[in-house]
Structures are given as structure tokens and as C-alpha cells.
Amino acid sequence: MIRLKGKKAIAIITMAAFLLTMLPAFVLASTPAKYVLTLSPTTVRPGTTATLVSGSVVDIYGNKGVVTIVYTPAGGTEQTFTSTLADGTFAKNYVFDKEGDYTFQVKEGTDVSNVVTVLSRYEYTPDARGSYKVGDTNVILGGTIKGLPAGRQMVLQHESVAGVYYTSAVTDTGRFAISVPVFTYAGTYVLGTANTDGTGFVKYEEITVAPQTLTVTADKTALTGGSFDNNVTFTAKPAVTVSGGTYYFELSGVKIDKNSVSGTIYGTVIDSAYYTKVAIEDTDGILNLASLKLLDTSGTLTVKAYYQKDSVDFANGLYADNAELLGTLNIPVNPAAKVNVFTNVTSLAADTTTTLAVYVKDVNNKVYGDTGSTLKDVKVTVTGPDVSASDSNKAEYTFNINPSQAGDVTVTVVATLTDNTQETKTLTIPVDGLKATLDAATVANLVYGATVTPKVTVTDKNGTPINNATVTISGPYSGTVDGRITNIVNGQYNFTSGALTDVTNFVVNVVDPSGKKARLTYPVLGSNVYTVTPEKATLIAGYDTEVSFTVKEGAYGVTDNVNVAYTDLNGTGQTVNGVTYTNGKYTVSLGSLTKAGTINFKVISTDGKKYGTFTVNVKLPVIKVFAPVDGILTDSQKEAVSYAVYSPVDNTEITANTTVTLSVYDNSATFGVYDQSGNALKSVNSSAYNTGVPAKVTVLATKNASYGYDGKLELLVNGIKVSELTVKPAVLTVNKTEVAVGSDNAVEATLKDAHDNPIKDATVTLNGTGVALTGTTDADGKVIFTVMPFATGKIVVDAPAYANIAKPAITAKFVVDDKKPVITIEAPATTDKETVDVNIKVTDEGKVAGLLVNGQRIELVAPMVEVNKVVTVTLKEGKNTITVEAADVAGNIATATADVTYTKPAPPADNTNTGDKYSKFVGQMVKLTYSKTNLRVAPNGKLLVTLKKGYKMRYLGREGVWNKVRVSIWMKGGYKTYTGYIYDPYFWALTKA
């Protein structure tokens, strides 16, 4: 410790006092205790004397002296002793006469040290411990404790549940063994010593008993978020059965609408609207939530299920730690689909009338008819055992249904949305009950007057025979078989023979002792004595609307009125009573036939006791739509639409009574209809138009620009949809998205129809940044513009006669030219001449401004996109590298090289005049100085050019014979090198130009 003296010490103390007065209260409150006490040893044997020796007693302010040691004996009251601290330590002999915990601390006024506990324990050695969980049986917890006095025993007791304890005496050797028949409570158990009356418990050890596993399942693999009703059932199935407690289901992870859970619940409502965590009390481990609403659109719902024997404090809706059974399930919460379907029930009972409510909601939780709902058209169909119902376009759909047997009821929702897309959703609701079947022989013989011996087979939903049910048949036959009285095998109930005395329904009712049911209903026909013959065995959909037939009884025609029963092509049963005999036949109107299928008819006498059957097939006409084959109409362009109709019976073309309808069904486009000569027939705008004949028309379609979807036109023949034509815009494209300001730019625009065919003779315009150009497309649908914008901005490309096209935009901007010129060199690889003419071509979009050949500047008239030059280069013997450098106006420089090898010709072998008298002019510019006739350059004998007197050219030397030479002459675009013949060589001469 550093000690300060004098004025400096006084100054520091004064400053410290000042700072202490300025410190906030919370800082002063955190000032450490004046003394820090440590004791050794901290564990002693009861009934022994130990010397307590402190560790370091720290005097914060430098004061030492007498301090008070306050202590509390095991099970006793607070006592004190004092100690004089000469050097910061103390020692004290103390008798620990009791078993238990002793606490010590240093205390002086309000300054208190830390509390130190000295454990007074007998020598304790536990046996090896395992891990324990609820349901474990015959658990032995043993060990050794030495010196335990008489009147004490070993005790295991639950830490928080009163009355749960087990005991064991201690042997002379100190051994004990506590036997637990079964752990029925989870949580913390403490093992220690106690008096035989249970008092004076001293803890030696803690033992944790874990919950048994609960398997948590749900009848859904995912839930829908965003305030939607979710019909879901959670099931908690224990691995070990524990009795005497209560199930709880804790839901967390997403926001839960507070009004969508009911029963005994625990949790804190947030913003008066929702739970973030809620626990629901349950009696049987099966929690049905018929309309659980999850406010978060996505996330994970965590379901924690537990079973607890003791009472639970759910003040905060939190899971209690000492549950006997525990399990967890995570279920994803997904955003709402475009169409969401819910029902008010999750199961049904057979032969029981139930009100089934179906709710159909869009992605925004709105129903049909709500403001802003995306549900444009909704149809709900409910099918199942003896269940067939449908309804459409309502906010809520209610059906009273009575499924006859165990199985499933299916709810099918077909919804058309405002974007004209269609969604189909299906829900399956299980039907609990029995399944019954009547033997096939009886079903086939349900005819008035027939004798039947019914056999009814009864099973559960899974096909397991039910032998203790009661089966009752009523109607034209009656009888009962009670499986509780009669010995039934394999679920088959056999009835005695009896006649069918009427044509009322044959009804079978089944019920078992638990109340599960099934019901069968069959019609009974009259006797089959009619012969019925249809006029046509095949009807053509869209053309035929009625069926005619004759009825005979034996050899004689029936002239009395009859009833006709049939099921139409939509599966709906129909009955026409009192059909009248006229002109030798009966006729039944079937209405519009718009699909193929088979219709089975029964002709029944009005008293129901005679009948006959016949069948007709309905076939679709063969309708061929020739154009457009891809089902597309190009917006703003006349398109040919052609079709033909053929009979499915004999494949002959049908023209009579054929009505072709062009129908606009989404009000997004207008349509003009024209004949093949271009004469207007009619304009169609959101209404049907009957074209009749001819079978070919031209349609001009224009979509409403404000409508967000494609226009659509249906082609129907006699009400049968055969084609759907979609209005698509023409496609206008350009080959560039950017052009340079101040430069000529070639832009190619292409216009094609919606079938990807080019459009000819269409006007295309370019407008913007000082550009206003108009062009006409060629046979390939193309038009080329030369564009020179004077400012940056957009240039819009348009085909004004075509609506709704995507108009490409070209950006005019200042372009930094970083592309080098492109150089092409043409020169022979070898030569025997001292000079060579090199053809040089240089191209650059930014224009060529300079040209060097072997470092020599070549003059250019002006910068241009393409430069062609012939440059004569003098060679040395051997390999010569010709280097060409070119620069554009932006300063980009390109370099190219070509190698030419020069080999001198060998001298002639004799003295013949094979030399060239003008060899001194080789490689130089010369001119014709005199000529009676002109010099003719004629490669390969074909006259190329005739050079007149005074013509300047470059002489390149002989080609091996006296009159064959090579010259370089000026042609359009530059010098070109040719080999030709000189005619009349004695009448001309060459001089240096």
C-alpha cells in the first residue's frame, strides 16, 4: 500500500471527498463491502472443532481493530464473536456440533462482508448415478454415510412437490439404499439426512428426473399465415402413460390472433390483439383448433406439449420446467396462396346430417364480393358417398350434407381471379362410420316382382369386418339381422328370401353398438318388358338437342305416356314425366349438348312397374381451325381466321345449322370482322358475334391499352369452344441500344408480327434528341436509318400503325472511341524485284486520320471510314518486314506487319537479248513518250485497259518474255497491280515521269 503524508495527502483526500459528493446515488450504492471474508476449511465433520482462519480481510480505508464476526449455526439463531485484527487475519476455534450449514460474515455498522458458508457434513460417498426420467421403475439410490447418529435416516424428496419422498435407514457399516418404485414426477429431487419424523433435513445431493418423451404430431404439414383460419389438430402421444395430471399445449414463434384460441388459456395479450406465446390446457392430449389464425405471413409455429401432475403457474404463459411428459413440434407457416379454402368441420359422421360451411378467401383474406377481392368467379363442389352439391359466387357456402357411408367428402373449389388465371383447390374431409355393400346379385335383381335374398357386408372404414352391428332393410323388402344376437362371420349379414312388392326405394340401414352408421339406397325398377329403340344411336354435340325413340311391349308399340330418367353429361340426374307418344315416337329435349359422353336412358311406365333401357353416344363434331394455328392474333393487323366442321359419324362437312361465334370475354380489346374481300362484317366489342358462313373471315384486333392483360377472343361452334385467340402485340426491335452524339450511326429496325413473321411496308419512326426519321420496312420487315443525334438523350423507335408494341429506346450519348483501326496488308511472300507494291486497307468506325508505312507518312485526302492504298516499297536482299501503322481521329493507333523475301534473279546463260532495256525504271513512275498505237494491258488475253500517250504509271519490270510486263495503274480507290502484254513495242518508249 502506498501511503501519502502532508499537504498532498490532504489535497487528495479533499478531492476524493468532493468527488464522492458528486457521484450519483447508484454509484454510491455499488460501493463494495468494507470487509471481504474467506474461511478455511469450508467443510467439516459434525461434532468436531475446527480453527477458522480468515484469508485476507481488506481494510479499504486503512482502519484496523476489533471486528464482529456474525454467524448462524445450522438450525439456530444468529450469534457473534469478536476478533482483534492486528495484521488483517484472525483465527478462532469453533465447535460445529450440528449437521447442517453454518454462515459467517464480518459486520461493522452498515458495512457487511460477503457471506461464507461452512458445510457441516458426515463423510458421504454416493454410489454411481445414472440418468433418470419419468416412468423409470425400481430405481435404487445407494451410497455410504459414516458417523450418522441414531435417530437420523437417508431421505429422497421432491424439491417442489410436497409429500413426494422416500426413505432408507443406515446400516452399521454406513450403507443405505433408497428404493423408488417409479418416478412419477419430473423435476429436481434432493437426497440427504433427516430425523425419523422427517424434520431437520440436510441436503447432500441433487438428482434430476427428466420428462418422458411426448410425441407431438399435427394433421397438417404446414399452416397458412396472414390471419387465415387453419383447421388443425395437435396430438400428444406419451411413450409412458402417467396419470393424475393435465396436458398443456404451448404455441409460440408467430403472432396468434387472441380470438382464435379458446378454452383455459394462459398468456399475455399484446396490443389487445394477439399472443406471442400462449398455453392451452387440455384433458386428453388431443387439441382441436377449428379456426387458428396466424397473423404473421411466414415463420415457424413451435408447439410444445407437456403433461404435468402438479399445479402450474402460467402467469406469463410460459412452460413449466417440471413437466412429467414433454415434446416439441415445429410447423412451417407459409404465406397465403392466391386462393385459400377452409371449412367449419374437420370430420363428418356417416348417416348424419351436418351443416358444412366452406370459406374461400383470396391472398388478402377477402371473400367473393369484398371490395378489392381478387376472386372474380368461384364455384364450390362437394362430393362424397351420396353427396353431390355445388354453389357459386358467395362470401360463404353452406351445404346440408348426409354422407351415407364411411369414406371421404371432397370439397373442390375452382376460382377465376381478376387476372384471368384459374386456381383449383381441394380439401378432403374424412367421414367416420361404417361401410356397407349389398351383394351384386340382389342389386342386379332390384326389379318389381322379383324375389331377392339380400346379403349385406359391413366393415369399418379400413375394411375390417364388423360382426356386432344391426342391419335393417326397408322398402319393397323388409327385414332385420342383429349381430348382437345372430352369430355373424366376416361381417356378412344374410337375409331370407322375399319378393319386391313395390317400386319404392330399397334402403339398407346399418348401426353398430358405438353408434357408427352406414346407409344404402337403391331404386327398384319395374319389370323389364319394354324394348326401346333410339332413332339415332349417335348425337352430335352442338347440333342435336333432342333424342327420339320408339317403345314396344312385345310386338306392339306402346302409346301410353311414359316417364324417362337419365343422367345428363354433367352427372346430374334428370327425370321427364309424362312423355307423349307422337307420330310413332317419343321425343325428349336434352338442351344444349356441349361435350362428349354416353347417356343411359330408362323408359318407365307411369306406375313404375314396367321399364326398358337404351343408350345413345354423344360425340363432338370434328372442328378444324386452320388459321391462326398458334392461337394468336397480332394487335392492329388483319389476321385470317378459318375453320371447318365435320360430322363425327361419317366425316362429311357440316354447313347447315352451324353457328360460329367470336366472343370477347374480358373486355380488353375491340375486334373488327371482315370477309375475304376486306368488306366489314361487324365490329365485336365484349359481345358475341355469329359469323355463320363463310367459314373464313379476317379479324382486326386492337387491345385496350389501359387493360393490364392480353385481349382474348373465343371461337365457338354451336356453343362448343374450339379455339382461344389471344391478342399479342407486334414486336419491334433495333440492333443498337446506344448511338454516338455527333457521328453517323447505322441503325436497323425490324418489325415482326406476333407469329414472328416479318411485316412488310410498315412505317417505322425514330424521334428524339434532334432525330426525326421515317422509313418503310422491306420484305424482311427491316428498315435501315442513318442517325446523327446532336445531343444526348433518348431516341424512341415506333411503328405508329401498331398498337401496344414495346417501343425500343436508343440512348444517344458521347462515346469514347477506344477501338483501334483494323489493318489488312496484301503483299507477295517472295519476289525477284527490288520493289514491291503493297496493298493496304485500313478501316475504323471513327475514321482513319493517319497512315505510316515503314515510318514514312502516306498522305490522305481526308479522314475516312475506309482507306485503300498501294504503296511501293524498295527491298533489300533477303527478308524484309513491312510495318504499317494507322491512327484514327480519336488517337487510337494500330500496327500490322508483313514479310517479303527478295531474291535477285540469276544472270542469263547466253548472250540472247533477254534483258529489259527499261530495267532502270523498275519501281518508278514512268510515262509513255511516243506511240503510234497505244499500250494495252490485257491480263490473260482479256483487254483490261488501253493506255494513251502521256499516261503515267509505275513500271514493275518484265515477266520473263519480251512483251509481258507488270505495271501499277490507277484504278478507282487506289493503285492496282496488273500483268499484261505490250503490243507494237517498236512504236513507243518509256521515260521517267
UniProtKB/TrEMBL annotation:
This is Big-1 domain-containing protein. It comes from the Bacteria. PROSITE patterns: BIG1. Residues 722-815 form the Big-1 domain. Belongs to the intimin/invasin family.
